[in-house]
Write a structure and sequence with these properties.
The complex is a heterodimer.
Chain A: H1 2-46, H2 62-70, H3 74-93, H4 96-99, H5 106-135, H6 137-143, H7 158-177, H8 180-202, E1 210-215, E2 228-235, E3 250-251, E4 254-255, H9 264-267, H10 275-281, E5 285-291, H11 296-324
Antiparallel strand pairs in A: 1-5, 2-5, 3-4
Helix pairs in contact in A: 1-5, 3-5, 3-7, 3-8, 5-7, 5-11, 7-8, 7-11
Chain B: H1 26-31, E1 37-48, E2 51-57, E3 60-62, E4 66-70, H2 77-85, E5 92-97, H3 106-110, E6 112-115, H4 127-137, H5 143-152, H6 166-179, E7 184-187, H7 196-213, E8 216-221, H8 224-228, E9 233-238, E10 241-247, H9 248-254, E11 255-261, H10 266-271, E12 273-279, E13 283-289, E14 300-302, H11 306-314, E15 323-325
Classes of the chains: A mainly alpha, B alpha/beta.
């Protein structure tokens, strides 16, 4: 069976390996450059020659930065081009009837095909994740945004789980629809929907977020490390959350409509704050709701687990459909 | 579901007038000692949602026979073959194929060769690739015979099978099916898509392989003429039901055509079951089951051909303007 899988998919294997190799070369070369730049800037900062320019460190590699961000879409590719056709193409061309009439049970046939595909997906997601995680090391240290949506999804364990999920989704769609193009369309839509729903609705709640209150007139509050900010704003005297300030008529993040008239002058830039205004400001509290940096790997683990469970359910559905249905 | 159904021996000794059963094989097997059955089904039925694809099918195929599975399109031929090959599960009934119930088991599958109507092959792979696939997936595999056969037919081994002609693809698929060295070969409309020359080549190769290996074959077709030359056993399906099953020679001997004047046929119906009545202005042609002499001297008996027999049982395939049909046993 393994030989048949290899014979059927060797072209895709070569293409995938070539893409990974090319990506690795680009990442290795630019990654070394980025690391050198970072260490040089760090040394300059330590020598007291200014640390401010660290923020603009990666201006020279926008293209590679874009390439790295675009690996957000890498996991679904295996689902689209390997997973969806895996069974759909066999049903579509009738070759299931060739394979199933060799001296191999349908269960064995399915198990071997699916196992190799899942392994391929894990390797694809894993290699890309390792490269991106390594490349992003200096960037993470500088920007402290590894926990934020869009970066969190590129690194660590989750790309592997996404790729496995995409593959399982493609295989299941192909088994159910038995047509390649509809299976590809369903895989793409399903992957995007699952990722969006879980990222936006579930991920913020894997653990209860921490909320910190601080005086609006003070320096504010910045948690340590690469934390993930969920929400930030101001709470008024009655405990209500104020709308986000828009335009210019606000002071310390508070719209002037909530403040006495004496606050109008400082809002326009006057240096002195009248006492009545200070008194009013003392009744407001700034708040920051966030997930602390030390939860990063817990969140990686939870999200990986969710997508692995989804993938397992899809594989079970595939087995049920393929083994129960008449040829 | 009705295990006794269609087993003529349990119905008493009235074989001469099988008034209610047209599917018994009792007469044929009485004359020729039956080998062990390669296929035996009992009350086999298959429903797809509300459509009945096969109803109460009870047939027997002895080992070593080449069986023609005849019937119009949609009669249930493919369904029966799929059930026998284990590709589909029956809704009701029982069957034994090569001594076992069809199931997902390497040993069972190794003994079955099945060639689907669409001649499924991996279009981008060459015949040589398919030979290697077969070698990996089958305990018995005669890859050399495929090479030999295809070479003798001038079919390139290294070209993607998608680029071969339909006839060549069918030959590749047949050679691969035979390389498995099955005990039972199931072929679904193997020649339907082939031109007459390719059709003759295909059947020739098949007949040669059968002679060499002594395997049992069931092949379906909606054309009688193709099957007549190579087959010695017949299963006829119509509207999902078995109409006839038995040795072709025996079936032909059991039936006769009677030609006589237009008159009442009640006397004949006492000794023979009338399958088909064809009236013309001056005469009456009857196809009857039962090979005994006819009491009425006005009727002349003659032999029946396989095509006439099949058409008579199919009924609706005969020209309706000239026939009044009594297709007895149709509603059992």
């Amino acid at each position: 069976m393994t030989w048949l899988v290899w014979r059927q998919h060797r072209a895709q294997f070569y293409l995938g390996a070539a893409l990974l190799a090319a990506f690795a070369v680009v990442i290795a070369i630019t990654g070394v450059q980025v690391a050198d730049q970072y260490h040089a800037a760090e040394a300059a900062c330590a020598a007291g020659q200014g640390c401010r320019h660290l923020g603009g460190l990666f201006l020279g590699s926008h293209a590679v930065g874009f390439l790295v961000i675009s690996t957000l879409g890498a996991p679904v590719l295996v689902g689209l081009f390997l997973g969806a056709p895996l069974l759909a193409a066999e049903y579509e061309t009738g070759t299931t009837q060739f394979a199933w009439m060799q001296s191999v049970t349908r269960k064995h046939w399915l198990a071997v095909k699916v196992s190799w595909m899942l392994l391929a997906a894990a390797v694809w997601g894993g290699v890309i994740s390792i490269l991106v995680t390594w490349w992003s090391g200096p960037d993470n240290a500088q920007q402290l945004d590894a926990f934020k949506p869009g970066r969190f999804d590129l690194m660590g364990a989750v790309p592997v789980a996404y790729a496995l999920f995409a593959m399982a989704l493609g295989i299941a769609a192909g088994a159910l629809l038995r047509r390649v193009l509809p299976a590809i369309a369903v895989t793409l839509a399903g992957f995007i929907a699952a990722r969006a729903v879980i990222t936006l609705l579930l991920r913020p709640h894997y653990m209860s977020a921490v909320t910190v209150l601080y005086k609006v007139t003070g320096a504010g509050y910045t948690p340590a490390g690469s934390y993930w900010q969920i929400a930030q704003g101001v709470i008024g005297p009655n405990g209500q959350t104020l709308p986000q300030p828009n335009g210019v008529d606000y002071l310390d993040g508070i719209p002037l409509a909530y403040l006495p008239g004496s606050c109008a002058a400082p809002a326009r830039g006057a240096a002195t704050v009248p006492a009545s205004c200070s008194q009013a400001l003392a009744h407001f509290r700034g708040f920051l709701t966030y997930q602390p940096a030390d939860r990063y790997w817990t969140f990686q683990g939870i999200e990986t687990g969710i997508f692995l469970v989804l993938a397992a359910a899809l594989i079970a559905l595939t087995a049920f459909v393929v083994l129960r249905r008449d040829a | 579901m009705t295990p006794l159904h269609g087993v003529p021996d349990l119905r008493g000794p009235d074989h001469e007038v099988p008034a209610d059963s047209l599917e018994g094989t009792g007469l044929g097997e009485a004359q020729r000692p039956p080998g062990p059955a390669a296929i035996a089904t009992s009350g086999l039925s298959k429903r797809y949602r509300k459509v009945s694809a096969l109803t109460d099918c009870t047939v027997t195929v002895p080992e070593g026979r080449i069986t023609a599975l005849i019937g119009p399109n949609g009669a249930g031929k493919t369904t029966l073959l799929h059930l026998l090959a284990g590709l589909a599960l029956p809704t009701a009934g029982e069957m034994t194929v090569n001594g076992a119930t069809p199931r997902q088991d390497p040993a069972f599958l190794a003994d079955i060769g099945f060639l689907a109507q669409e001649i499924p092959l991996y279009r981008r792979m060459s015949a040589a690739d398919h030979i290697r696939v077969g070698a990996h997936l089958n305990p018995r595999w005669d890859g050399a015979s495929v090479q030999e056969r295809l070479t003798s037919l001038n079919i390139p081994l290294d070209r993607a099978v998608g680029k071969l002609s339909g006839g060549q693809r069918a030959q590749v698929a047949l050679a691969l099916t035979l390389a498995k060295q099955p005990r039972l070969l199931l072929l679904d409309e193997p020649v339907a898509a082939l031109d007459p020359l390719a059709r003759r080549n295909f059947l020739g190769v098949l007949a040669g392989a059968v002679a060499a290996n002594g395997l049992t074959v069931v092949m379906s077709s909606h054309l009688v003429a193709d099957m007549e030359r190579v087959c010695d056993h017949l299963i006829m399906l119509s509207s999902s039901r078995v109409q006839l099953c038995g040795d072709i020679e025996d079936l032909l001997a059991e039936h006769q055509i009677l030609v006589g004047p237009r008159k009442e046929i009640t006397a004949i119906q006492k000794s023979h079951s009338v399958i088909q009545v064809t009236r013309t202005p001056r005469q009456l042609t009857l196809l009857v089951r039962g090979n005994g002499p006819v009491a009425d001297p006005a009727f002349q008996a003659s032999d029946v051909s396989l095509e006439e027999l099949v058409l008579a049982y199919l009924g609706q395939d005969a020209p309706p303007a000239l026939t009044a049909l009594t297709t007895e046993g149709d509603d059992q």
